[in-house]
Amino acid sequence: MNVALVKPTTDHALGELFAAARGRLPGSGPVAEVRQNAFDDFARLGLPHRRIEEWKYTDLRALLREIAPLAPAPDQADLARAAKAVKSLGIDSTQKLVLVDGVFAPQLSDVTALEAGVHLRTLREVLEDGSNKVRADLLQTSVASDAMISLNAALATDGVLIDVAEGAALAKPIHIVHVATDSGTSLVTRSLLKVGNGARVTFVESFVAAEGAKSYQTHDSVVIWIGDEAELQHVRLMEDALDAANISTGIFTIGAKAKLNTFNLTNGGNISRYQGFITFAGEGSELTTNGVNLLGARRHGDTTLVVDHAVPHCSGREVFRSVLDDRAHSVFQGRIIVRPGAQKTDGKMMTRALLLSDEAEADNKPELEIFADDVTCGHGATTGALDESLLFYLRARGLPEKEAQALLIAAFVGEAIESIADDNLRDFAVAAAERWLATRG
Question: Which residue, of 70, 182, 346, 425, has the fewest CB within 10 Å?
Answer without folding.
Answer: 346
